[in-house]
Amino acid sequence: MFFKSKKILAVGMLLSMMAFAVAGCGGGDKKAEAPKKEAAKVYNVGIVQLVEHQALDDSRKGFIEGMKKKGFEEGKNVKYDVQNAQADQSNLQTIAQRFVNNKVDLICAIATPSAQTMANATKTIPIVGSAITSYESAKLVKSDKKPETNVTGTSDMAPVAAQLDLGLKLKPGTKKVGLMFTSSEMNSYVQIKMAEEHLKKAGVAYEEGSVNTVNDIQEIARGLVSKGVDFIYVPTDNVIASATPALVAITNEAKVPVIAADAILLKNGATASVNIEFFQLGVISGEMAADILNGKAKPQDMPIAFQKEFTPSINKAQAEKLGMKIPEDLAKFTK
Fold it and tell me: What is the pTM assigned to this prediction?
């Protein structure tokens, strides 16, 4: 009996081994599959730019670079939907609805009107701004230190006093300054009010000229020149920035320099500026956006970021064309 049981056990073990071998051979043509990794989430980010000009282009490029620095690369884990409103409010509204309908994970709004339209369209999708002067004045946040809304970002607030002082130093004896801006741009309006206050304290008179579209620029410039302004100051203004050559064509005839808040305008004939680094501000906005997407921060708790250091820039060729003498202490800032 013992031997019979032992024999049956041996046969059973042999059959089990054969079955295992057959099963192994049956799968011989297939390699054992490793456990599948869960696909990385791809974030959808909408980028809306008010109009095409270099400052806003730099802001957009900087934003994408800032996201990349924090690990978000297009084609890997982020997809950008880049839209340009061509300075048209109805286009902004269409773009806002597009982003909301597509349920993007975050919106980058470049320029004040872009941010205002996006903020009106959604109170839940995070919005990170760039090339925006005053978030508070635009009613995008409760305060710069603590937004308490779905909006945060970087400010391109110009050092208005320093820019005007640069103009006064380049044009000694200035009695009247022309202030030119777009009436519908809150960012420009805020800076013009700051300019008024500074010029009042300096005892310098001023004349204002506001435009609605690029078609008004030359007419308004002629008006300011006819009133005897010694130089024209232009704040960070999207309409004027997109058509600076039209402005300079008039001011050059009258030998009137243009002092710009945006140093990029020097390439198009402005005489001097105190730099705003739009690309770098865009980078900071991109890093802020990455922190939001990573769950490390929420827009309502993120203070608005500002540029801390500024450097003068002087267009030497333009200054010479206008017969201006550059003070020795400013010579190192010529380009």
Answer: 0.82
